[in-house]
Amino acid sequence: MRKRFDEELRHLNDLLLEMASLNESAIKKAISLLDEKNKDIAEDVIQDEKRTDQYEKIIQDQCLKIFVEQQPAASDLRRVSSALKMITDLERIGDNARDIAEICMGLPDDCDRSSLALIKEMAEATVNLLNRSIDSFVNLDLDLAKKIDHEDDVVDKYFVMIRDQLIDIIKSDFDPGVAIDFIMIAKYLERISDHGVNIADWVIFTLEGSRT
What's the predicted TM-score (pTM) here? Predict the structure, then answer.
């Protein structure tokens, strides 16, 4: 009975990893549109978001199957319940990646890209945080889960730096519309980071029975 349950949990982990990997790919593709608009890549991000929605339903069904067939208790119950909560965050990350792609495709071709270096660094930090939060769940790594808040602080600092940089350059004839678009991209990255923190909090709940 336990062997079957462990197999079901491994399958659940695999599905979560696939969904998270899809999100990571979508974020990277969306950010790549800052360098060069590409309708095919933008369409890929939209399709990735739709696939993320499909994964949400598949994982919901897998969790319900475990509940019905295995009737988990204690930490096992918390683990499956946490997975159900986590897929909501993962689904919203897919939405955020799509939103970033849409903004990038709407930017003027000749816009000032002086803020892009920081935005790309922020995107990399955000993807790393998301990967580590998922790893903490798959490996039930409490120490790693508790470090995610600190990594979120790093992403938040990037947002402040980007915001302050844009405020400064707007004063020197920078297109305010483009500035708003860049700030929105940074804001969506910040939201993705927050979803990664939520995932880590559910790991803490799984292992300790309470969230931070």
Answer: 0.92
